[in-house]
Structures are given as C-alpha cells and as structure tokens.
Amino acid sequence: MEAKLLKTGTAEYKQSTWSGVNSSGYQALDDKVIILPDVASDKTSGGVILDDSLVERLTMAAETGVLVAVGEGAFLWNADRTAKWTGRKPQPGDRVYTQRYAGQLLHGEDGLQYRVMDYKCIGAIKNG
Q1: How far apart are the first and last CA of the chain?
Q2: What CA–CA distance (Å, rounded) separates 40 from 117?
Q3: Dist CA 50 CA 71 (whole Å)
Q4: Diameter over CA atoms, the chain
Q5: pTM above 0.85, yes or no
Q6: Confidence of residue 1 (pLDDT cuts 50, 70, 90)
Q7: How crowded is the C-beta side of 37, counted as CA atoms within 13 Å?
C-alpha cells in the first residue's frame, strides 16, 4: 500500500508511519525530542517525477512528522521557563507540526532519517 500524501504549499509528502518502537538507536535527552519527518514524494500527484536532489531538499524542509522520543525535561516549562507547562503534552506516536529546518539530522540504525530538536520547535499536534 502506498503512503498517504500530505499536500502543502511547498510539496507533497509521504506521511511517515511509526511502529510504536524507537528503532532509531537514539534517546532524546533533557528538553529534546526526536521526530521521524515525512519524506517528500519523488512523484507528484500529477505524475511528474522529481529529481533526487529536489526530493532531498524538500524533505529537509518537512514541517510534519511523527514524534518518536521525548526527553525527560521536555514539556515541563513554557517556552521562556517562567511557568509550568499546561495542556496536553505530546507523546510518542503523535503526528506533529514543527518549525521548518528545525533541529539536527540523525541517521538512525534502522536506515531512516530523524531530526532531534528542542521541544519548543513543535507547534501543534494533529487531532485524531
């Protein structure tokens, strides 16, 4: 079965799926989180095949993905650390929306590409 496409103003992305187990080989520390970003589709819904370098650049700009790991210090305080975090805390398995180009790339032991970033880079959780 082909991955569901997520269309944005920038590109079309194959939504990442997560098995429920962090197989990246990394654990998030302190206030960091690890995201499995969506991957840009190599073919548009209109049938145009995209160059590999363009797909790579579009994937680097992905703003959506699946939360894989949460550090123990993440989501304890608000962004400026003046008050305790209130509201829902994102959990592994949640589909999240992040800042474009946020974080650092990690090449997982499972062959997938992850991003480690500050928890503050997550802006929203997809409902449902």
Answers
A1: 21
A2: 20
A3: 36
A4: 50
A5: yes
A6: very low
A7: 29
Q: How far are the Cα atoms of 50, 67, 71, 110 from residue 97, in angstroms, in the given order?
A: 24, 10, 18, 23
Which CATH number is associated with domain 5-125? 2.30.33.40
The mean pLDDT of 76-90, rounded to a whole number, is 91
110: its two tokens: 């499972």
| Nearest CA-CA partner of 120 in 90, 2, 5 | 90
pLDDT exceeding 70 applies to what percent of the chain? Answer: 95
Question: φ, ψ for residue 115 (rounded to 5)?
Answer: -130, 130
- CB 22, CB 68: distance < 8 Å: yes
